[in-house]
Design goal:
Blueprint (H helix, E strand, L loop, with lengths): L1 H138 L3 H49 L10 E5 L4 H7 L4 H10 L2 E3 L6 E5 L3 H17 L4 H30 L6 H9 L4 E2 L2 E2 H18 L4 H10 L14 H11 L4 H9 L9 H15 L8 H16 L4 E7 L4 E6 L6 H18 L7 E6 L9
Parallel strand pairs: 7-8
Antiparallel strand pairs: 1-3, 2-3, 4-5, 6-7
Length: about 500
Amino acid sequence: MLIYYILPVVTLIIGVIVTYLVLNSIEKNRANSNRKEAERILKDAEKEAAAVKKERLVEAKDEIFRMKSELEKEFEDRRKEVGRQENRLQKKEENIDRKMDQLEKRDRNLTQKESDISKLRENLLQIEKQHQKELERVAGMNSDQARELLLSKVEKELENEISIRIKRSEEKIKEISDQEARRLISLAIQKWASEQVVESTISVVSLPNDDMKGRIIGREGRNIRALETATGIDLIIDDTPEAVILSGFDPIRREIARMALEKLITDGRIHPARIEEMVDKAKKDMEQRIKEEGEQAMYKVGVSNLHPEVVKMLGRLRFRTSYGQNVLQHSVEVAVLAGIIATELGMDPEIAKRSGLLHDLGKAMDAEMEGTHALLGARFAEKYKESPDVVHAIAAHHEDEEQRTIEAVLIQACDAISAARPGARRETLETYIKRLEKLEKVANSFEGVEKSFAIQAGREVRIMVKPEKIDDITAARMARDVVKKIEEDMDYPGQIKVTVIRETRAVEYAK
């Protein structure tokens, strides 16, 4: 049975071997065939490569020949161009040599001419010296003296001419500016008319009857002492019927005392404790009134957006005076005038009105603060964020600092207008006389003055000069000098007119 299993296996193995041998033989034949084909293809490729190489060599030779021809042509062209350049340079060198020869000739000619001119100059100098000596001999003076005489004469003529022209220009400018200034001021004053409140150092409180005086004085004077201590104001109770006088230089304290006293009289209960209570209440009412006064001033002028502290400080001006003029009323007047004039001049009226309203803010400050009222007010306005133009106008309205804007000049002018208008300020007789005497003293301090007179309440000074010492030109110059000295040495409201009068009389007698 085993043989039946082995025989197929052997047969299968023999078949596989035979198949392998057959396939191996076929593969060898195919490899030989492929090798022969590859050798044939390689030979063909070698032949084709040789042909291509030969062709490329021919083309390269042709290209080399063509490039050689082009290079030879280009070289020939360049050689010709170089030749042309050499010819051109040679011609230029010839021209330069020719010009150099010409310049050398010209230089020699110029040298000769310079030599001739030098000789002529020497001859002229000798002739000039001879003429100068002859002129000095004829004139009887040397050249320095003649020069000095000529310069002196020319200087005098020019000085007279300049002074005459300055005088004419000043008269023309003054005439035009005076007309325009009068028009603007008249227009501003016509549009703004206000009464002037004159403050004093006393206030009068009316009483219902004379019996109230005893109650105000109190037992052993305790009530009147308590009221004076609480307010800092003196109470004067005299024989004036049904009236009590409050005396003090601080108008705010005086007003607080008046308000407290009127409330005590109305209430009827007058004793130290009640007095202190009423004084405290009057102080609070005064703070509110100060605020209201500032707000009313803002409303009159048309200014808004002021800081509350600035409004309070502005309201305090209602209780301040300057030469008898109420400062708040003066500030409102300056603001309105500045706004009107600024509108006429094409400026910003808002800045002008704001600056005018706040220009005297420093007068409401305490006495302990150092500095002029202009600088104090400017610092206070700057602290509360006012614009630089407004701050500068406040600081410069009395020239505490140099004026840099038109608004500053305008506020100074409106301040003078408000202070100088009739009835605006009052002045004691003693101060008035001293101011007139000082004005005449300033005028008399100049050489050549014969007499001087202060007239029109000190708003004009007329100076009589000696005609033999002061001529017309010097008189005009003296007027300007007197004005400068008055501005430097005196403090005065408004402006002062200076008139220099020179009178020449020719007298002869017929015999």
